[in-house]
Amino acid sequence: MSEDCSQSCGTCGEECADRKVDFSEQPHELSKIKKVIGVVSGKGGVGKSMVTSLMAVSMKRQGYNTAILDADITGPSIPKAFGIKEKAMPSELGLFPITSKTGVEIMSINLLLENDTDPVVWRGPIIANTVKQFWTDVIWGDVDYMFVDMPPGTGDVPLTVFQSLPVDGIIIVTSPQELVSMIVAKAVNMAKMMNIPVIGLVENMSYFECPDCDKKHYLFGESRIEEVAKQYGIDVVAKMPIDSSLAGGCDKGLIELFENNWLDPIVKTLEKSEQADALFVPEFANQDVPAQTGSRV
Ligand code: ADP
């Protein structure tokens, strides 16, 4: 292994004896994607798409070219959050993503379906294949950070997606209730099995801040995120409150106008790793993660 190893085999071109097993597909020849960050959650509805969107918007504000690959094929909510109504058009060269108002490149199944409300009733392999095509057939251009809104859970579909895309690191999104269950352990273990570092843990809907007195109310009990993160060797944590203006902004397609600093710890970690050029050393590599069963297919 080279001394400068960044642990990012997916996007490193070095021939190296320690290269991790790589099932990944090649991106379109007109795409140059530097880093791929997967955003995962144990189940749907915990705010994974919200965090994906906010991360892409925040990194764009820091001056990076960002993109979102919406791999949540059965629950695609990214176009709505960005207020995108137009459809992606194929060309002879491939499929172009839609560019949001502030310049985030986006591809989602809802940009291809005739009606946003058409259900996607496909089996796992077809879903996984669609995600692969979003990687291989979309002309993404120059992207510094691609955020992938992963299918929820740790089943077959997310696993295949992980294996198809060269994911450099993941952000785990949880709700306070998930933190007290084994769901986070499963996500951490999946990342470990795939040899993908966990960049940060986000507790969404962590608290409610009273607009009158600014007091934080922990509706689901005091947050345990620091304790849980420590247990899994995750250094970076972020807490997001329940915020009706955030939900409203998303519903109106105005996520890009939303200013907040909740995800700053993760944004700063990405920026720091840019400067250090030593991205995502797997923090949990030597940690004992509570055992879960599961094997790589
Ligand atoms: P997932 O991608 O995990 O299925 P979403 O990001 O689509 O979840 O969020 C589910 C719903 O909850 C959406 O309507 C979203 O606007 C809302 N939501 C998510 N996070 C928050 C939050 N912190 N405050 C208020 N509403 C939120």
Question: How would you characterize the overall build of this protein?
Answer:
This protein is α/β, with parallel strands linked by helices and 297 residues long. The protein has a single domain (23-273), classed as Rossmann fold. The chain has nine helices and ten strands. It has an eight-stranded mixed beta sheet, with helices on both faces. A hairpin with a 5-residue loop joins strand 3 and strand 4 (105-107). Helix 3 packs parallel to helix 4. The chain is globular, with a radius of gyration of 18 Å. It starts with 31 loop residues before the first strand and ends in a 21-residue tail after the last helix. The model is unreliable at 281-297 (pLDDT under 50). Bound molecules: adenosine-5'-diphosphate (ADP). The site of adenosine-5'-diphosphate (ADP) has 18 residues, from helix 1 and helix 8.
Write the layout of secondary structure elements.
Elements: E1 32-41, H1 48-61, E2 66-70, H2 78-81, E3 98-99, E4 105-107, H3 124-136, E5 142-149, H4 156-164, E6 169-174, H5 176-179, H6 183-193, E7 198-203, E8 208-209, E9 216-217, H7 225-231, E10 237-239, H8 244-251, H9 264-276
Helix pairs in contact: 3-4
Bound molecules: adenosine-5'-diphosphate (ADP).
- Tell me the CATH topology: Rossmann fold
Q: What's the helical proportion of residues?
A: 25-40%
Label the structural class: alpha/beta
CATH homologous superfamily annotation: P-loop containing nucleotide triphosphate hydrolases
Oligomer: single chain
Proportion of β residues? Answer: 15-25%
Distance between the termini: 26 Å
Examine the secondary-structure arrangement and name the CATH architecture: 3-Layer(aba) Sandwich
How confident overall, as mean pLDDT? 85
Helix-strand pattern, N to C? EHEHEEHEHEHHEEEHEHH
Uncertain stretches of 5 or more adjacent residues: 281-297
User: Number of DSSP strands?
Assistant: 10
CATH class: Alpha Beta
Rounded radius of gyration (Å): 18 Å
